[in-house]
Amino acid sequence: MAQVIVGILLIMRTYALYDRSLRVLLFICSCGLAVIIFGTWSVASGHGTKAIDSYTLQAGCIPPVSVVDATRLAKAWIGTLMFDILIFGMTMFKSWRRGHRGDRSLLYILNRDGALYFGTMAAVVLVNIISFHVSPEYQRGFTTILANMLVHFKPFKRLLIVFDTIEFQAP
């Protein structure tokens, strides 16, 4: 659910970056909906996981993930990666077209438009997908925690910065 909320924030940001173009909004929303449907299908199409002993859960260990389950979960993350690449590419394209504006460098514009965040997220999600395929049973998807932390942290940090800059007047 949290990734859907962050996805909505990314859609809103890209929509604003493209000067509120309805075509861009419809395209991104269609892609986002396709990712949600694909991810839900990937996760729900499994046969279930094997029982996990209570000690594993109490010790705080990552539960084992079978090869079949790892493949299903990796597919869902691939959908997320494709959406991140789409947003990253669209942000890069718009930033590149804007180029230099006065004393602002391209790196400043990329950072402002969030492309560096999208690139970092895409890299973390790619590492997560790889971990599902090459890691041993108890380490598959171990970077999911990092990916979820990054998904939550950056957009909300930007919102806090926006709220911090608003001047409130006493009644």
Structure description:
The protein is mainly alpha-helical and 171 residues long. It is elongated and about 55 Å long.
Give a short synopsis of this structure.
The protein is mainly α and 171 residues long.
Order of helices and strands: HHHHHHH
The SS-based structural class is mainly alpha
**In this structure, how is the largest beta sheet organized?**
none
- Would you tell me the overall average pLDDT? 76
Quaternary organisation: single chain
Global shape:
elongated
Q: How far apart are the termini? A: 37 Å
User: What's the total helix number?
Assistant: 7
Our Rg estimate from Cα atoms comes to 19 Å
Proportion of residues in extended strands: under 5%
Q: Which bin fits the share of residues in helices?
A: over 70%
Q: How many E strands?
A: 0
Query: Low-confidence parts lasting 5 or more residues at pLDDT below 50?
Result: 159-171
Descriptive key words:
0% strand, mainly alpha, 171 residues, single chain, 7 helices
Secondary-structure topology with pairs:
Layout: H1 2-17, H2 22-44, H3 54-58, H4 67-98, H5 106-112, H6 115-134, H7 144-165
Helix pairs in contact: 1-2, 1-4, 1-7, 2-4, 4-6, 6-7
